[in-house]
């Protein structure tokens, strides 16, 4: 009986990977949704941090992996999925150890995320699941997109008063939700910094930040409690969007759009 | 011995440093208007005695009294006002102007260098500079002075306090004869002002010439105490220093000269 | 001189209120203008004024007490120690629950460092031992700061070591000012009266005592005062180095090297330096704003080199 089962499983094992490890937060999030039970054996340690990872509870059951060849190899993976921008020595060492690699690009828009999901689903032998996930994303996108005239300007503030300008994921999310991105209009590229003074002077209609970012205090996130932001109260709306929904392009971004929709006047 | 009439005195003074006994039951009273020289071989406790008199060290036993009052019971202000102390090889950490440095001697009188000096303080500084013949040095930073000039400015600083007790620890060490003689003359003048002058000296000849009284310290105890002719008698200092002395007499003043081991 | 310095500080303070990306914010409406000037620029300018003042004063006080022109809160590790204690209070969340924990921790850290230094570097012992002690305290404090940051669950915390070792007063708000300012002011008041005794210490500890200085209580007073000043300053801004070195250095020759006379001018020069440096970092065309502490180190380190060479020459001469 056991033997029959094993024999039946063998041909499939030749093409579909059985022990998969993913090495960055965003690829982890996709793999956690796409992989068959037991197929994914390791994800990056960041995926276990509930502040950064939407699926932290599921990731907690898996081995946490750091960018060190040893922690990866002890999991005996037959496929490692990693960002195309990973360190060259890491890739070389993994290939040298005979591990198959799948390099996927960093997605900075919902459309790019769909392409990455499609590629990963194919590699995992989970095309059906991938198709369903993408179809769901497209439906959500249609449902949540603001089609009327723009509502005004918005600005996104993250750690160290970093902001997302032209060409960034947040830029797309703000636009889809009906806002013009103040940072993009100020000529800031996909990542830049804004002083609080510039934020006040820009008088945006909406400020988007992670209101819980400073629950574990750091100077980088301390600004979310700065008194000067209170001066915007009344005129400017404030939307608190947990970082974990906006950090990666993918299905979680629709939670950002839902939160932005709630903040509409 | 009565100590109430003296300017400053020690009674049963014992000073220990760790297990070593530096001073062992010293009784001395010092009179105003006199120059007392403290002599003795290296390590006899001369500097330690002076530090106790200045209130810088606390006795292990016994007491230092200023005009019959225990020194420890007097406040720092009264002590500073009554006792001027010139340490050995006195120096300054910052290149202060000579006049400012001398004015530090007026701190016990309430002077503050950050404000203009009061007339009486300015006059005292002036007097002190005149007494060391240092008027022409007054505007110069002390790091530009020669060793002898610097010693004079340091002396003027101690003089400017115009205290009742004047303590000087080897003020003539490593000075040229001219400076040494001048320094001893200044100390005599200080005694003539009715101050009680106590000076640690190495040079027995200078002690014999300029001191009214000489205290010989040896082995942590007072070996002799009296006028130069008594305290510097051959038997006393040969025992104290462990060498033989020859005595010359110049102008009626004995001048002991160390002769042989 | 003090009058001119006071005018300079006042001018820089007003300039600090006027400089920013929005320049004349009132054109955007009184409400926004008010928020920019009152909530953003005023805390920054006032903290610059106070922090610069207390760092300049602390430098002058420590140099007078240790009789060493290289004694400076940043160089000898007092600021780093304060930074470590503040980091503990801040990243553990203690300061979020109890705001005063931040300056109090900083003050304790600074006071402990001053006490350690006073114990180790008694009676004007050499520059070498003072600097080595500083190197040791700085290294230990930096390592401990790094450790505490690594333990923080906030993903951004670990990148902030540079922010603590080279401080900044960007985005400090009125609450930071409120918790730190009183301690800095009290610390300054405590040490401003010690000038006479620092003058006396020019002649060494024994002579100073013979002139009526109570060196024991003076040491306690300076430990407390410098602890309050440097501790409170560092707890809200991080380490801003070299201000305490440069300020007395610029003043000393002008006041005839009297340590007591350097106190007030050093305080004013320190305030002018930090206000000026903070205005400069806002105006410099760098991609992201240069940290204030980086700027003061950049300007100040050459002064340290010069002072070390001088001290070395003096040492060779003796």
Brief summary of the model shown:
The complex is a heterotrimer of chains A (265), B (261) and C (318). Chain A is an alpha/beta fold and 265 residues long.
Q: What can you see in these coordinates?
A:
The complex is a heterotrimer of chains A (265), B (261) and C (318). Chain A contains 13 helices and eleven strands. By secondary structure, chain A is α/β, with parallel strands linked by helices. Chain A has a five-stranded parallel β-sheet with strand order 3-2-1-4-5, with helices on both faces. Chain A is globular. Chain B has a six-stranded mixed β-sheet with strand order 6-7-8-3-9-10, sandwiched between helices. In chain B, strands 2-1-4-5 form a four-stranded antiparallel β-sheet, covered by helices on one side. In chain B, strands 11-12 form a two-stranded antiparallel ribbon. The mean pLDDT of chain B is 93. With 318 residues, chain C is mainly α. In chain C, 75% of the residues lie in helices and 0% in strands. Chain C is globular. At the A-C interface, helix 10 and helix 11 of A face helix 2 of C.
Number of helices of chain C: 14
Average predicted local confidence, pLDDT of chain A: 88
Measured by residues with Cβ under 8 Å of the partner chain's Cβ, the largest interface is:
A-C, 32 and 35 residues
Give the total of beta strands of chain C: 0
Mean pLDDT of chain C: 90
Strand runs of chain A, count: 11
Under the CATH scheme, the architecture of the largest domain in chain A is: 3-Layer(aba) Sandwich
**How much of the sequence of chain C is in beta strands?**
under 5%
The 3D shape of chain C can be described as globular
Number of domains of chain A: 2
Our Rg estimate of chain A from Cα atoms comes to 21 Å
Number of domains of chain C: 1
Classify the helix fraction of chain C into a percent range: over 70%
- Net shape of chain A: globular
Low-confidence stretches of chain A: 1-14
Alpha-carbon distance between the termini of chain C? 33 Å
CATH homolog superfamily of the largest domain in chain A = Nitrogenase molybdenum iron protein domain
